[in-house]
Amino acid sequence: MSYFPIILEMTGRRCLVIGGGLVAERKIAGLLDVGAEVTVISPKVTEAISHWSKNNSIQLEGRCYRIGDLAGYQLVFVATDDADVNDRVYQEGKSCGVWVNAADDPDHCDFILPAVIRRGDLAVAISTGGASPAATRAIREELDDYFTAEYAQLVQVAAEVRMELKEKTLNVGAGAWNSSLKGEFRRLIRAGRPEQAKEFLLKTLGARS
């Protein structure tokens, strides 16, 4: 596998979506959720995409893709079911250094999108490198049951403790963190007692006497 997993900061990143169907709609929704700036090029769009355009959540150009459209964008998502468009967009991306993702066409992708499970600030990505989208979905469904809502609380409490340790200039190693996030801490999180879990963690890591 030649894909390198990466979590990318998307706030304010200029993204272009070519296509206006349901697949494009899902891509746009995901991009808006993470704060990207989205432009859509398509002569026809779904009702949801039209609504986003009318309330200024996205910029919409009601036409077909033309060479030169990728200028000024950092990421491009193609969702047209048109192999010729996929190829032309991909080749333009190569020529101007813009990353391209073509839905269900890994040969015309600089990057692929994993299946993602989100629990608060926790994001778990699952990918088969494009080899089997069906297997990716099946594994995601299995892990969805495993990562319960308590994981969002776990991450939130751990983040708050980390910030307090930084304010106190306390340097805690990975081994101490790993040990502290188990046992009693997890029991308190499962019991719905985040404040007690935080105090326990602070004390275990040396920020409380």
Keywords:
209 residues; Rossmann fold; five-stranded parallel beta sheet; two-stranded antiparallel sheet; 8 helices
Structure description:
Helix 1 (22-33) links the parallel strand 1 and strand 2. It contains eight helices and seven strands; from the N terminus they run βαβαββαβββααααα. The termini are far apart. The chain folds into three domains: 1-113, NAD(P)-binding Rossmann-like Domain (Rossmann fold), CATH 3.40.50; 114-147; 150-204, no CATH class. By secondary structure, it is of the alpha/beta class. Helix content is 44%, strand content 15%. The strands form two sheets. The protein has a five-stranded parallel beta sheet, with helices on both faces. The chain has a two-stranded antiparallel sheet with strand order 6-7.
- Cα end-to-end separation: 49 Å
Specify the helix fraction band.
40-55%
β-sheet strand percentage = 5-15%
Specify the CATH class of the largest domain: Alpha Beta
Order of helices and strands: EHEHEEHEEEHHHHH
CATH-assigned fold name of the largest domain? Rossmann fold
Q: Which radius of gyration do the C-alpha atoms yield?
A: 22 Å
| Number of strand elements | 7
Order of the strands making up the biggest sheet: 3-2-1-4-5
